[in-house]
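Design a sequence for this backbone.
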């Protein structure tokens, strides 16, 4: 580098640019197409697509240099750092609309793929002739570009693939790779530019490397070390692993995940060459992210699990505290932690952010949404939508296509505190939810239930961005609710895949719960008193292997019917402590919250107390006598128990069944709400359990 009084110092950026330029090889065809478009060719839009790490960003940097040399103004956008909305895109790209010599380069378009239709139909047609736009992303363009005669002469599609052998060899020359290492490197990386560069960096420093060199896992770890460089401390390594695991890393996320100085670690992360910044935080290059993840999972499985749990807890709290407009983003970040685990959640359209926009109900939307509901589910269902739009407009969310602004779905989260005759008459789905709640576990004072009602155009059902957003919104509502007893999600004729998805999320299906017109609805219900939000989320996070009853923190979670059946079995085992100790009830909340000691003995004590309690109420003394004669005094047969009580067998059976039901209901209430005394409104009536 030259310096001195009469000379000019070389800038670091110039050295970086020169190094990048020297490492750029091949791509003659793509450069020729860009040059033709730059100098008056017929194309106004170039669409470059190819897999991650294939060199799209490097190609766009070269395009920028070529455009600058031609005297053209250059603007660059990156989908990783851009909010996926038309307004944000236009705000950043607006200069190209005013300058016929401008060149707009859009990188990582797959992150904002949902804007593709809007870009084609609304933004690009406003370009002045002479302006040039280059879009680069992982996915090929929608076929509607090429099916539209209007774009035939204005769009050129470039499929970027691995470097051919000649160019791959040239890249290794640029890196100074020894001849004996070329064959194993090519076998490892093929013509993939990023893998070649990273592999070369590792292999060249492996003193024993030869033609037999292979990328074992320890070599992959070395590759990672070479990419990251010298890590100052284990804390810095942990910060990098957090950055790889989370969707976006912020200083407060680091603070929650690490015991060290989060501010200093964040400053270090943001200076790394392979870590980018966005409005949401920091994120690493995709390849770096995956290598870091794989390395930690292999090297320290328990450390990986502990880190995951800390990040998960932090993001779960973000969901609970986020503003309403940020709930979907917060839930998306939470579930991104499970992006590679299909047992946890359904595959989601991470790359299609921006295609569908969610927002509140706006003035003038109601009439359009009633028409949407009619097109989606028919006249009777549209009448339900019209009723709720008039009665509870603030509880609606509207989903629109970014490219057209047209509504394609709407969703109402109906928060209901007590049955209303008019509401139940207007919507059979709501009536069915109240009927189920009353018959299963009624609301207590201060509680509410929620019913999710959606209307989605047929083309957007199944696996689609709008269904993703709806699911994130439902999860957010459930995790943020206070004093919610039940949630119900109504789905019209759900597929078995969707039923299984709800079941994995511990939402129990009630098939054919309601009919609206000719449509049958399944209700997916969850009792949030039985399995509270934090427990539900823990279960989903752990993704436990299926068992007769799934466990959370060592406790079993059973439906009301399963619980009652286990109580009946336990009563029959009251005189057999060894068998009683094996009951699933010994791992229930009922027993766990009763106190320490042997779970089998605790269960026996609880059952005996409930039997005694029947005798303390004059209205249930006859039930007490039947239950005690059968299970406490141990009559060999029920016929003999009836004879000892001096009762006809049918009368005895009626008293026994009523007594068992009273015991089941009392213990079920304790399972749901803990050992505290029940509120008067929640106490079962003397004649039997609720609904009887």
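Sequence:
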């Amino acid at each position: 580098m030259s310096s001195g009084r009469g000379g000019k110092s070389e800038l670091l950026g110039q050295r970086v640019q020169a190094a990048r330029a020297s490492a750029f090889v091949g791509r003659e065809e793509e450069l020729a197409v860009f040059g033709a478009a730059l100098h008056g060719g017929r194309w106004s839009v170039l669409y470059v697509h190819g897999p991650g790490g294939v060199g799209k960003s490097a190609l766009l940097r070269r395009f920028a240099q070529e455009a600058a040399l031609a005297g053209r103004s250059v603007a660059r956008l990156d989908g990783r750092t851009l909010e996926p909305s038309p307004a944000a895109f236009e705000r950043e790209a607006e200069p190209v609309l005013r300058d016929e010599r401008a060149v707009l380069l859009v990188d990582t378009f797959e992150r904002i793929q949902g804007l593709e239709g809007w870009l084609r139909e609304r933004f690009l047609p406003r370009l002045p002739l002479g302006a040039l736009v280059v879009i680069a992303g992982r996915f090929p363009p929608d076929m509607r570009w090429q099916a539209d005669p209007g774009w035939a002469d204005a769009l050129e599609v470039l499929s970027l693939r691995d470097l051919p052998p000649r160019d791959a060899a040239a890249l290794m020359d640029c890196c100074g790779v020894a001849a004996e290492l070329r064959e194993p490197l090519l076998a490892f990386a093929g013509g993939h530019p990023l893998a070649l560069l990273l592999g070369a960096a590792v292999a060249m420093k492996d003193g024993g490397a030869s033609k037999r060199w292979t990328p074992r896992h320890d070599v992959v770890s070395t590759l990672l070390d070479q990419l990251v460089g010298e890590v100052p401390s284990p804390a810095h390594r942990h910060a990098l692993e957090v950055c790889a695991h989370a969707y976006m890393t912020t200083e407060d996320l680091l603070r929650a995940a690490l015991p060290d100085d989060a501010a200093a670690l964040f400053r270090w992360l943001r200076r790394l060459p392979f870590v980018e910044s966005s409005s949401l935080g920091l994120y690493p290059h995709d390849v770096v992210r995956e290598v870091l993840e794989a390395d930690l999972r292999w090297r320290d499985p328990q450390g990986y699990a502990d880190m995951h749990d800390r990040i998960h807890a932090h993001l779960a709290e973000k969901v609970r505290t986020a503003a309403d407009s940020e709930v979907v983003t917060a839930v998306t970040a939470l579930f991104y932690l499970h992006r590679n685990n299909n047992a946890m959640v359904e595959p989601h359209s991470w790359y299609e952010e921006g295609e569908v926009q969610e927002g509140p109900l706006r003035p003038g939307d109601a009439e359009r949404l009633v028409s949407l509901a009619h097109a989606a589910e028919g006249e009777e269902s549209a009448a339900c939508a019209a009723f709720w739009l008039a009665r509870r407009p603030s509880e609606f969310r509207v989903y629109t296509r970014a490219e057209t602004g047209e509504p394609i779905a709407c969703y109402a989260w109906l928060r209901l505190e007590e049955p209303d005759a008019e509401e139940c008459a207007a919507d059979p789905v709501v009536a069915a939810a109240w009927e189920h709640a009353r018959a299963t576990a009624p609301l207590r004072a201060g509680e509410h239930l929620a019913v999710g009602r959606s209307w989605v155009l047929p083309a957007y059902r199944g696996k689609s961005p709008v269904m993703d957003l709806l699911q994130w919104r439902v999860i957010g509502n459930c995790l943020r609710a206070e004093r919610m007893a039940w949630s119900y999600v109504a789905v019209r004729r759900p597929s078995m895949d969707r039923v299984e998805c709800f079941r994995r999320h511990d939402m129990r299906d009630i098939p054919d719960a309601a009919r609206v017109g000719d449509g049958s609805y399944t209700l997916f219900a969850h009792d949030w008193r039985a399995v509270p939000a934090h427990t539900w989320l823990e279960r989903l996070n752990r993704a436990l292997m299926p068992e007769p009853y799934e466990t959370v923190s060592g406790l079993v979670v059973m439906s009301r019917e399963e619980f009652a059946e286990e109580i009946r079995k336990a009563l029959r085992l009251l005189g057999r402590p060894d068998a009683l100790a094996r009951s699933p009830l010994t791992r229930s909340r009922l027993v766990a919250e009763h106190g320490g000691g042997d779970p089998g003995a605790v269960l026996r004590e609880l059952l005996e107390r409930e039997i005694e309690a029947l005798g303390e109420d004059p209205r249930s003394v006859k039930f007490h006598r039947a239950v005690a004669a059968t299970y406490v005094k141990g009559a060999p047969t029920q016929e003999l128990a009836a004879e000892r009580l001096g009762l006809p067998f049918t009368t005895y059976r009626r008293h026994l069944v009523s007594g068992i039901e009273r015991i089941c209901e009392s213990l079920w209430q304790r399972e749901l709400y803990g050992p505290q005394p029940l509120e008067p409104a929640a106490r079962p009536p003397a004649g039997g359990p609720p609904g009887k």
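The chain is about 50% helix and 15% strand.
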